[in-house]
Specification:
about 450 residues, alpha+beta, D-Maltodextrin-Binding Protein, domain 2, 6-stranded mixed sheet
Length: about 450
Amino acid sequence: MSEFNRRKFLEGSASVAAAATLGTGATVFAPAVHAQTLALKPEKGAKLRVLRWSRFVQGDIDAYMLNVKKFTEKTGIEVRVDNEGWEDVRPKAAVAANTGGGPDIVLSTNDDANLYPEKLLDVTDVAEYLGKKYGGWYPAVHQYLRPDGKRWLGLGLGAAGSMIVYRDSMVKAAGFTSFPKDTAGFLALHKALKDKGTPGGYALGNATGDSLWTNWLMWSHGGQLVDKNNKVVIDSPETIKALEYGKELYATFIPGTLSWLDPNNNKAFLDGQISVTNNGISIYYATKTSTDPKVKELQSDIQHASFPIGPVGVPTESHLFFNQMIFKYTKYPQAAKEFLRFMMEREQFDAWLIGAGGYIAHPLAAYESCPIWTSDPKHTAYRDCVKNMRPTGHAGRLGYASAGAGADFIVANMVAEAISGSKTPKEAAERAQKRAERYYKV
Protein backbone atom coordinates (compact mmCIF):
# COMPACT_ATOMS: atom_id res chain seq x y z
CA MET A 1 0.00 0.00 0.00
CA SER A 2 2.95 2.30 0.49
CA GLU A 3 3.25 2.88 -3.26
CA PHE A 4 -0.15 4.52 -3.42
CA ASN A 5 -1.24 7.97 -2.43
CA ARG A 6 -2.56 7.52 1.09
CA ARG A 7 -4.35 10.84 0.89
CA LYS A 8 -6.67 9.37 -1.73
CA PHE A 9 -7.39 6.43 0.52
CA LEU A 10 -8.59 8.71 3.27
CA GLU A 11 -10.30 11.17 0.94
CA GLY A 12 -13.94 11.45 1.83
CA SER A 13 -13.37 9.42 4.98
CA ALA A 14 -13.70 11.95 7.77
CA SER A 15 -15.34 9.33 9.95
CA VAL A 16 -12.22 7.19 10.22
CA ALA A 17 -11.39 7.52 13.88
CA ALA A 18 -8.20 5.52 14.13
CA ALA A 19 -5.91 3.54 11.89
CA ALA A 20 -2.97 2.89 14.13
CA THR A 21 -2.33 -0.49 12.52
CA LEU A 22 -3.35 0.27 8.95
CA GLY A 23 -0.64 -1.97 7.54
CA THR A 24 -2.22 -5.01 9.20
CA GLY A 25 -5.73 -4.19 8.08
CA ALA A 26 -6.88 -3.62 11.69
CA THR A 27 -8.69 -0.32 11.27
CA VAL A 28 -11.07 1.09 13.88
CA PHE A 29 -14.04 3.14 12.73
CA ALA A 30 -16.02 5.66 14.74
CA PRO A 31 -19.76 5.12 15.39
CA ALA A 32 -20.43 8.36 13.49
CA VAL A 33 -19.71 6.42 10.31
CA HIS A 34 -23.33 5.28 10.34
CA ALA A 35 -24.70 8.82 10.31
CA GLN A 36 -24.13 9.30 6.57
CA THR A 37 -27.24 9.84 4.45
CA LEU A 38 -28.01 10.08 0.75
CA ALA A 39 -31.44 11.02 -0.58
CA LEU A 40 -32.17 9.51 -3.99
CA LYS A 41 -35.63 9.56 -5.53
CA PRO A 42 -36.16 6.69 -7.99
CA GLU A 43 -38.29 7.55 -11.02
CA LYS A 44 -41.92 6.42 -10.99
CA GLY A 45 -42.42 3.17 -12.88
CA ALA A 46 -38.67 2.50 -13.06
CA LYS A 47 -37.40 -0.84 -14.36
CA LEU A 48 -33.74 -1.78 -14.45
CA ARG A 49 -31.65 -4.22 -16.44
CA VAL A 50 -28.28 -5.37 -15.09
CA LEU A 51 -25.58 -7.12 -17.14
CA ARG A 52 -23.01 -8.85 -14.97
CA TRP A 53 -20.32 -11.48 -15.26
CA SER A 54 -21.37 -15.06 -14.64
CA ARG A 55 -20.57 -16.65 -11.31
CA PHE A 56 -17.58 -18.84 -10.67
CA VAL A 57 -19.08 -19.84 -7.32
CA GLN A 58 -22.80 -20.51 -7.04
CA GLY A 59 -23.10 -18.70 -3.72
CA ASP A 60 -22.18 -15.42 -5.42
CA ILE A 61 -25.17 -15.34 -7.72
CA ASP A 62 -27.51 -16.84 -5.13
CA ALA A 63 -26.69 -14.11 -2.59
CA TYR A 64 -26.71 -11.40 -5.26
CA MET A 65 -30.17 -12.39 -6.46
CA LEU A 66 -31.50 -12.48 -2.89
CA ASN A 67 -30.35 -8.88 -2.53
CA VAL A 68 -31.99 -8.00 -5.85
CA LYS A 69 -35.22 -9.50 -4.56
CA LYS A 70 -34.95 -7.45 -1.35
CA PHE A 71 -34.44 -4.30 -3.42
CA THR A 72 -37.54 -4.98 -5.52
CA GLU A 73 -39.61 -5.76 -2.45
CA LYS A 74 -38.52 -2.53 -0.80
CA THR A 75 -38.81 -0.19 -3.79
CA GLY A 76 -41.19 -1.88 -6.21
CA ILE A 77 -38.55 -1.53 -8.93
CA GLU A 78 -38.31 -4.59 -11.18
CA VAL A 79 -34.71 -5.66 -11.90
CA ARG A 80 -33.68 -8.05 -14.68
CA VAL A 81 -30.21 -9.58 -14.28
CA ASP A 82 -28.39 -11.11 -17.26
CA ASN A 83 -25.28 -13.22 -16.58
CA GLU A 84 -22.53 -13.55 -19.18
CA GLY A 85 -18.97 -14.84 -19.19
CA TRP A 86 -16.22 -12.31 -18.49
CA GLU A 87 -15.08 -12.42 -22.12
CA ASP A 88 -18.63 -11.62 -23.29
CA VAL A 89 -19.48 -8.78 -20.91
CA ARG A 90 -16.85 -6.42 -22.31
CA PRO A 91 -17.98 -6.49 -25.99
CA LYS A 92 -21.66 -6.37 -25.05
CA ALA A 93 -21.06 -3.37 -22.80
CA ALA A 94 -19.07 -1.67 -25.56
CA VAL A 95 -21.92 -2.20 -28.04
CA ALA A 96 -24.36 -0.72 -25.53
CA ALA A 97 -22.12 2.30 -25.01
CA ASN A 98 -21.80 2.91 -28.76
CA THR A 99 -25.45 2.35 -29.66
CA GLY A 100 -26.98 4.03 -26.63
CA GLY A 101 -29.19 1.10 -25.74
CA GLY A 102 -29.06 -2.02 -23.61
CA PRO A 103 -28.51 -2.65 -19.90
CA ASP A 104 -28.81 0.23 -17.47
CA ILE A 105 -26.07 -1.13 -15.23
CA VAL A 106 -23.01 -3.21 -16.09
CA LEU A 107 -20.77 -5.13 -13.72
CA SER A 108 -17.51 -5.50 -15.60
CA THR A 109 -13.77 -5.97 -15.10
CA ASN A 110 -10.60 -3.94 -14.59
CA ASP A 111 -10.76 -0.43 -16.09
CA ASP A 112 -13.45 -1.01 -18.69
CA ALA A 113 -15.06 2.20 -17.47
CA ASN A 114 -12.18 4.08 -19.08
CA LEU A 115 -13.06 2.73 -22.52
CA TYR A 116 -16.10 5.03 -22.74
CA PRO A 117 -16.10 7.49 -19.79
CA GLU A 118 -18.26 10.01 -21.64
CA LYS A 119 -21.03 7.40 -21.88
CA LEU A 120 -21.23 6.80 -18.14
CA LEU A 121 -23.39 8.44 -15.52
CA ASP A 122 -21.57 10.46 -12.88
CA VAL A 123 -21.95 8.56 -9.59
CA THR A 124 -19.83 10.84 -7.42
CA ASP A 125 -22.65 11.40 -4.94
CA VAL A 126 -23.06 7.68 -4.29
CA ALA A 127 -19.30 7.04 -4.21
CA GLU A 128 -18.68 9.80 -1.68
CA TYR A 129 -21.59 8.69 0.49
CA LEU A 130 -20.35 5.10 0.60
CA GLY A 131 -16.74 6.16 1.11
CA LYS A 132 -17.61 8.32 4.10
CA LYS A 133 -19.85 5.69 5.62
CA TYR A 134 -17.61 2.67 5.16
CA GLY A 135 -14.09 3.83 5.88
CA GLY A 136 -12.95 4.93 2.42
CA TRP A 137 -12.32 3.30 -0.94
CA TYR A 138 -8.97 1.57 -1.36
CA PRO A 139 -6.40 3.41 -3.55
CA ALA A 140 -6.75 1.12 -6.59
CA VAL A 141 -10.49 1.86 -6.73
CA HIS A 142 -9.74 5.58 -7.05
CA GLN A 143 -7.22 4.86 -9.77
CA TYR A 144 -9.60 2.69 -11.77
CA LEU A 145 -12.79 4.72 -11.44
CA ARG A 146 -11.69 8.26 -10.65
CA PRO A 147 -8.60 8.70 -12.82
CA ASP A 148 -9.01 12.48 -13.10
CA GLY A 149 -9.32 12.82 -9.34
CA LYS A 150 -12.75 14.38 -9.72
CA ARG A 151 -15.69 12.53 -11.26
CA TRP A 152 -16.47 8.92 -10.32
CA LEU A 153 -17.17 6.86 -13.45
CA GLY A 154 -18.57 3.97 -11.45
CA LEU A 155 -18.41 2.21 -8.12
CA GLY A 156 -15.94 -0.43 -7.05
CA LEU A 157 -17.45 -3.86 -6.45
CA GLY A 158 -14.31 -5.67 -5.35
CA ALA A 159 -11.87 -8.12 -6.89
CA ALA A 160 -11.37 -11.81 -7.45
CA GLY A 161 -7.97 -12.43 -5.93
CA SER A 162 -5.26 -13.95 -8.09
CA MET A 163 -3.55 -15.87 -5.30
CA ILE A 164 -1.48 -19.03 -5.25
CA VAL A 165 -3.55 -22.19 -4.74
CA TYR A 166 -1.49 -25.28 -3.90
CA ARG A 167 -1.58 -28.84 -2.58
CA ASP A 168 0.24 -28.68 0.73
CA SER A 169 1.09 -32.39 0.70
CA MET A 170 2.73 -32.13 -2.71
CA VAL A 171 4.74 -29.03 -1.79
CA LYS A 172 6.06 -30.88 1.28
CA ALA A 173 6.76 -34.00 -0.76
CA ALA A 174 8.88 -31.82 -3.04
CA GLY A 175 11.01 -30.87 -0.06
CA PHE A 176 9.50 -27.55 1.02
CA THR A 177 8.14 -27.02 4.53
CA SER A 178 6.33 -23.82 3.48
CA PHE A 179 5.46 -22.01 0.28
CA PRO A 180 8.40 -19.92 -1.01
CA LYS A 181 8.28 -16.16 -0.48
CA ASP A 182 10.81 -15.16 -3.18
CA THR A 183 11.12 -15.84 -6.90
CA ALA A 184 14.24 -18.00 -6.53
CA GLY A 185 12.42 -20.35 -4.16
CA PHE A 186 9.31 -20.24 -6.36
CA LEU A 187 11.30 -21.52 -9.36
CA ALA A 188 13.07 -24.15 -7.27
CA LEU A 189 9.71 -25.43 -6.00
CA HIS A 190 8.27 -25.74 -9.51
CA LYS A 191 11.34 -27.64 -10.69
CA ALA A 192 11.00 -30.02 -7.76
CA LEU A 193 7.28 -30.48 -8.38
CA LYS A 194 7.92 -31.37 -12.01
CA ASP A 195 10.56 -33.89 -10.98
CA LYS A 196 8.01 -35.47 -8.64
CA GLY A 197 5.43 -35.74 -11.44
CA THR A 198 3.16 -33.17 -9.78
CA PRO A 199 3.75 -30.05 -11.93
CA GLY A 200 2.20 -26.63 -11.74
CA GLY A 201 0.40 -24.73 -14.47
CA TYR A 202 -0.70 -21.14 -15.15
CA ALA A 203 -2.99 -19.75 -17.86
CA LEU A 204 -1.24 -18.28 -20.88
CA GLY A 205 -4.29 -17.79 -23.10
CA ASN A 206 -6.42 -14.65 -23.15
CA ALA A 207 -7.87 -15.41 -19.72
CA THR A 208 -9.47 -12.32 -18.20
CA GLY A 209 -8.65 -13.30 -14.64
CA ASP A 210 -6.06 -16.05 -14.55
CA SER A 211 -3.63 -14.49 -17.02
CA LEU A 212 -3.04 -11.67 -14.51
CA TRP A 213 -0.12 -13.64 -13.11
CA THR A 214 1.82 -12.33 -16.12
CA ASN A 215 1.61 -8.81 -14.64
CA TRP A 216 3.20 -10.17 -11.47
CA LEU A 217 5.97 -11.80 -13.51
CA MET A 218 6.83 -8.52 -15.23
CA TRP A 219 6.42 -6.26 -12.19
CA SER A 220 8.34 -8.54 -9.82
CA HIS A 221 11.48 -7.98 -11.89
CA GLY A 222 10.95 -4.23 -12.28
CA GLY A 223 9.30 -4.23 -15.70
CA GLN A 224 6.34 -1.95 -16.44
CA LEU A 225 3.95 -1.40 -19.30
CA VAL A 226 4.27 2.37 -18.90
CA ASP A 227 6.03 4.76 -16.54
CA LYS A 228 4.43 7.46 -14.38
CA ASN A 229 4.23 9.77 -17.40
CA ASN A 230 2.37 7.14 -19.46
CA LYS A 231 5.40 6.57 -21.65
CA VAL A 232 5.52 2.98 -22.92
CA VAL A 233 8.58 1.30 -21.38
CA ILE A 234 7.74 -2.39 -21.59
CA ASP A 235 10.74 -3.11 -23.85
CA SER A 236 13.29 -2.80 -21.05
CA PRO A 237 16.13 -4.79 -19.48
CA GLU A 238 13.89 -5.47 -16.49
CA THR A 239 11.16 -6.97 -18.67
CA ILE A 240 13.72 -9.11 -20.50
CA LYS A 241 14.95 -10.47 -17.16
CA ALA A 242 11.37 -11.30 -16.20
CA LEU A 243 10.83 -13.16 -19.46
CA GLU A 244 14.07 -15.09 -19.11
CA TYR A 245 12.97 -16.15 -15.63
CA GLY A 246 9.58 -17.02 -17.11
CA LYS A 247 11.20 -19.36 -19.63
CA GLU A 248 12.70 -21.40 -16.81
CA LEU A 249 9.37 -21.43 -15.01
CA TYR A 250 7.40 -22.43 -18.11
CA ALA A 251 9.67 -25.46 -18.60
CA THR A 252 8.14 -26.89 -15.42
CA PHE A 253 4.48 -26.40 -16.46
CA ILE A 254 2.09 -29.13 -17.46
CA PRO A 255 1.67 -29.13 -21.29
CA GLY A 256 -1.19 -27.13 -22.81
CA THR A 257 -1.18 -23.94 -20.75
CA LEU A 258 -0.78 -21.75 -23.85
CA SER A 259 -4.45 -22.33 -24.64
CA TRP A 260 -5.75 -22.13 -21.08
CA LEU A 261 -8.60 -19.73 -20.37
CA ASP A 262 -10.13 -19.04 -16.96
CA PRO A 263 -11.86 -22.41 -16.39
CA ASN A 264 -8.91 -24.59 -17.45
CA ASN A 265 -6.65 -24.40 -14.42
CA ASN A 266 -9.62 -24.99 -12.11
CA LYS A 267 -10.39 -28.21 -13.94
CA ALA A 268 -6.74 -29.32 -14.07
CA PHE A 269 -6.28 -28.73 -10.34
CA LEU A 270 -9.48 -30.49 -9.32
CA ASP A 271 -8.62 -33.39 -11.65
CA GLY A 272 -5.29 -33.81 -9.88
CA GLN A 273 -3.27 -32.89 -12.97
CA ILE A 274 -1.48 -29.97 -11.27
CA SER A 275 -0.43 -29.21 -7.72
CA VAL A 276 -0.13 -25.41 -7.88
CA THR A 277 -1.68 -22.58 -9.89
CA ASN A 278 -3.04 -19.07 -9.42
CA ASN A 279 -6.76 -18.54 -8.94
CA GLY A 280 -9.53 -16.99 -6.97
CA ILE A 281 -10.96 -18.92 -4.06
CA SER A 282 -13.25 -20.83 -6.45
CA ILE A 283 -11.08 -23.97 -6.47
CA TYR A 284 -11.27 -24.25 -2.69
CA TYR A 285 -14.97 -23.38 -2.79
CA ALA A 286 -15.55 -26.25 -5.23
CA THR A 287 -13.95 -28.73 -2.83
CA LYS A 288 -16.26 -27.54 -0.05
CA THR A 289 -19.45 -27.82 -2.09
CA SER A 290 -18.77 -30.75 -4.44
CA THR A 291 -20.59 -34.07 -4.07
CA ASP A 292 -17.69 -35.86 -5.79
CA PRO A 293 -15.66 -37.63 -3.06
CA LYS A 294 -12.41 -37.25 -5.03
CA VAL A 295 -12.88 -33.48 -5.24
CA LYS A 296 -14.07 -33.15 -1.67
CA GLU A 297 -11.04 -34.92 -0.25
CA LEU A 298 -8.82 -32.14 -1.66
CA GLN A 299 -10.33 -29.63 0.76
CA SER A 300 -7.97 -30.28 3.66
CA ASP A 301 -4.91 -30.33 1.39
CA ILE A 302 -5.49 -26.96 -0.29
CA GLN A 303 -3.65 -23.90 0.96
CA HIS A 304 -3.40 -20.32 -0.33
CA ALA A 305 -0.44 -17.94 -0.51
CA SER A 306 0.58 -14.62 -2.00
CA PHE A 307 2.78 -14.50 -5.07
CA PRO A 308 6.44 -14.34 -4.06
CA ILE A 309 8.46 -11.15 -4.00
CA GLY A 310 10.90 -10.69 -6.87
CA PRO A 311 14.07 -8.65 -7.36
CA VAL A 312 12.16 -5.37 -6.88
CA GLY A 313 11.83 -6.27 -3.20
CA VAL A 314 8.15 -5.36 -2.75
CA PRO A 315 4.85 -7.19 -3.33
CA THR A 316 3.50 -6.80 -6.88
CA GLU A 317 -0.03 -8.14 -6.70
CA SER A 318 -2.37 -8.16 -9.69
CA HIS A 319 -6.02 -9.07 -9.14
CA LEU A 320 -9.18 -9.04 -11.26
CA PHE A 321 -10.98 -5.82 -10.34
CA PHE A 322 -14.77 -5.58 -10.64
CA ASN A 323 -16.60 -2.32 -11.29
CA GLN A 324 -20.24 -1.20 -11.48
CA MET A 325 -21.20 1.31 -14.18
CA ILE A 326 -24.43 3.09 -15.13
CA PHE A 327 -24.90 4.21 -18.72
CA LYS A 328 -26.05 7.78 -19.31
CA TYR A 329 -28.78 6.61 -21.67
CA THR A 330 -30.71 4.96 -18.84
CA LYS A 331 -34.24 6.27 -18.43
CA TYR A 332 -33.98 5.75 -14.70
CA PRO A 333 -30.71 7.26 -13.40
CA GLN A 334 -31.97 7.82 -9.86
CA ALA A 335 -33.29 4.27 -9.63
CA ALA A 336 -30.02 2.89 -10.96
CA LYS A 337 -27.98 4.82 -8.41
CA GLU A 338 -30.33 3.74 -5.63
CA PHE A 339 -29.85 0.12 -6.71
CA LEU A 340 -26.07 0.37 -6.44
CA ARG A 341 -26.31 2.17 -3.10
CA PHE A 342 -28.64 -0.48 -1.72
CA MET A 343 -26.43 -3.36 -2.88
CA MET A 344 -23.34 -1.79 -1.26
CA GLU A 345 -24.91 -1.15 2.14
CA ARG A 346 -23.63 -3.37 4.94
CA GLU A 347 -26.74 -5.49 5.39
CA GLN A 348 -26.65 -6.56 1.76
CA PHE A 349 -22.92 -6.43 1.04
CA ASP A 350 -21.81 -8.51 4.02
CA ALA A 351 -24.39 -11.15 3.08
CA TRP A 352 -23.09 -11.18 -0.50
CA LEU A 353 -19.44 -11.48 0.56
CA ILE A 354 -20.36 -14.36 2.84
CA GLY A 355 -22.53 -16.04 0.22
CA ALA A 356 -19.69 -15.87 -2.30
CA GLY A 357 -17.43 -17.68 0.16
CA GLY A 358 -14.59 -15.16 -0.05
CA TYR A 359 -14.46 -15.16 -3.85
CA ILE A 360 -14.79 -11.36 -3.93
CA ALA A 361 -12.54 -9.12 -1.86
CA HIS A 362 -14.19 -5.87 -0.76
CA PRO A 363 -13.34 -2.36 -2.08
CA LEU A 364 -14.26 -0.40 1.08
CA ALA A 365 -12.09 -0.54 4.21
CA ALA A 366 -14.90 -1.14 6.71
CA TYR A 367 -15.65 -4.54 5.19
CA GLU A 368 -12.32 -5.87 6.47
CA SER A 369 -14.37 -6.92 9.50
CA CYS A 370 -16.78 -9.07 7.49
CA PRO A 371 -16.97 -12.50 9.17
CA ILE A 372 -16.14 -14.30 5.92
CA TRP A 373 -12.44 -13.46 6.33
CA THR A 374 -12.10 -15.21 9.69
CA SER A 375 -14.78 -17.91 9.58
CA ASP A 376 -12.30 -20.11 7.72
CA PRO A 377 -8.53 -19.36 8.02
CA LYS A 378 -8.07 -20.33 4.37
CA HIS A 379 -10.22 -17.34 3.34
CA THR A 380 -7.98 -14.77 5.02
CA ALA A 381 -5.35 -14.73 2.28
CA TYR A 382 -7.90 -13.14 -0.07
CA ARG A 383 -9.11 -10.41 2.29
CA ASP A 384 -6.67 -7.65 1.32
CA CYS A 385 -6.54 -8.17 -2.45
CA VAL A 386 -8.09 -4.80 -3.36
CA LYS A 387 -6.14 -3.06 -0.61
CA ASN A 388 -2.80 -4.35 -1.92
CA MET A 389 -3.37 -4.57 -5.66
CA ARG A 390 -1.70 -2.62 -8.44
CA PRO A 391 -3.98 -1.55 -11.30
CA THR A 392 -3.27 -3.25 -14.60
CA GLY A 393 -2.04 0.04 -16.11
CA HIS A 394 0.74 0.46 -13.52
CA ALA A 395 2.64 2.73 -13.21
CA GLY A 396 0.76 5.22 -15.39
CA ARG A 397 -2.50 7.06 -15.07
CA LEU A 398 -5.49 4.98 -16.06
CA GLY A 399 -7.69 5.94 -18.97
CA TYR A 400 -8.61 4.81 -22.47
CA ALA A 401 -5.05 3.69 -23.23
CA SER A 402 -4.69 1.46 -20.18
CA ALA A 403 -8.16 0.01 -20.68
CA GLY A 404 -7.49 -0.74 -24.34
CA ALA A 405 -4.07 -2.24 -23.69
CA GLY A 406 -5.49 -4.43 -20.94
CA ALA A 407 -8.39 -5.61 -23.07
CA ASP A 408 -5.89 -6.47 -25.81
CA PHE A 409 -3.91 -8.80 -23.49
CA ILE A 410 -0.60 -7.19 -24.46
CA VAL A 411 1.32 -8.30 -21.36
CA ALA A 412 -0.17 -11.79 -21.33
CA ASN A 413 0.60 -12.30 -25.03
CA MET A 414 4.17 -11.05 -24.61
CA VAL A 415 4.81 -13.47 -21.76
CA ALA A 416 3.23 -16.39 -23.64
CA GLU A 417 5.33 -15.72 -26.75
CA ALA A 418 8.60 -15.32 -24.88
CA ILE A 419 8.45 -18.09 -22.31
CA SER A 420 7.11 -20.69 -24.74
CA GLY A 421 9.94 -19.94 -27.18
CA SER A 422 7.83 -18.79 -30.12
CA LYS A 423 9.74 -15.51 -29.88
CA THR A 424 12.88 -14.49 -28.07
CA PRO A 425 12.30 -12.36 -24.96
CA LYS A 426 13.61 -9.32 -26.86
CA GLU A 427 11.36 -9.95 -29.86
CA ALA A 428 8.32 -10.40 -27.62
CA ALA A 429 9.09 -7.21 -25.68
CA GLU A 430 9.59 -5.23 -28.90
CA ARG A 431 6.26 -6.44 -30.25
CA ALA A 432 4.52 -5.57 -26.98
CA GLN A 433 6.12 -2.11 -27.09
CA LYS A 434 4.72 -1.44 -30.56
CA ARG A 435 1.27 -2.75 -29.66
CA ALA A 436 1.11 -0.63 -26.51
CA GLU A 437 2.26 2.50 -28.33
CA ARG A 438 -0.84 2.27 -30.52
CA TYR A 439 -2.90 2.94 -27.39
CA TYR A 440 -0.53 5.32 -25.60
CA LYS A 441 -0.18 7.78 -28.44
CA VAL A 442 2.13 10.71 -27.74
